[in-house]
Amino acid sequence: MNLPRGEEKVRAVEAMFDAIAPRYDLLNRLLTFGMDIGWRRHTVRSLGLGVGSTVVDIACGTGDLCRELSAVGHCAVGVDRSAGMLAAARTDSPLVRGDGLALSFPDASIDGIVCGFALRNFAGLPPFLAECARVLRPGGKLALLEVATPSNPMLALGHRFYFGRVVPLVGGFLSDRSAYQYLPKSVAYLPSPAEMADLIAAAGFTGVNRRLLSAGIAQLLTGTRAESK
């Protein structure tokens, strides 16, 4: 499968998520054996923000992270390009149809940003990170949850088989085959861990940290918006 780029990628990803929205949550639970719930809770806790903080969930999908944010007392706002995902959302938080590269929030107006499993789907990571830096107040928190590959060779082999063979098979049976063939392959869009950390720092974040979750099959990237000079 040739991976799309630029505007072709944006259109293809939006159409794909519209198509898989009705069974997206079901497949997330099945394919991760429910581990994604813990990953999202860990992401929200990593922000370290006080009750009542305004946190934007970019590429919010059906609102899983919005629900976790609300559960700890944050004021969550979800943003997603996919009308299908927003229509299938199960959250009381306000939702906005929009682009993560052109957020409709004023400069330095947000306390925190989370994003779950969507870094692979943006047209480009530098403009996404620059937009996050723009809307976050100085000292605001960023938490990015993504897939990863275990460093242990045996675990990596099993993960590659599961992600590359089992995920498309189950996803194709219960939802859209082409979408669940694309999702494992889209890992190729991600830069190396070192490059990703450099991109986050270059966008204006300090204390950039990468944490591996569940033996390295997921990763959490965090940072703090640099104080104004």
Give a summary of the structure in a few sentences:
44% of the residues lie in helices and 22% in strands. With 229 residues, it is an alpha/beta fold.
Please characterize this protein's 3D structure.
The protein has helices spanning 6-20, 24-31, 35-47, 64-71, 83-87, 125-135, 153-174, 177-185, 193-202; strands spanning 54-58, 75-80, 95-97, 110-116, 136-147, 205-213, 218-225. With 229 residues, the protein is of the alpha/beta class. The protein has a single domain (6-224), classed as Vaccinia Virus protein VP39 (Rossmann fold). Helix 3 packs across helix 4 and helix 7 runs antiparallel to helix 8.
Topology readout:
Layout: H1 6-20, H2 24-31, H3 35-47, E1 54-58, H4 64-71, E2 75-80, H5 83-87, E3 95-97, E4 110-116, H6 125-135, E5 136-147, H7 153-174, H8 177-185, H9 193-202, E6 205-213, E7 218-225
Parallel strand pairs: 1-2, 1-4, 2-3, 4-5
Antiparallel strand pairs: 5-7, 6-7
List keywords for this structure.
7 strands; 9 helices; 22% strand; Rossmann fold
Name the CATH architecture: 3-Layer(aba) Sandwich
Shape: globular
Integer-rounded radius of gyration? 17 Å
Number of helices: 9
CATH class: Alpha Beta
How helix-rich are the residues, as a percent range? 40-55%
- CATH T-level topology: Rossmann fold
Would you identify the CATH H-level superfamily?
Vaccinia Virus protein VP39
Q: How many extended strands?
A: 7
Poorly predicted ranges: none
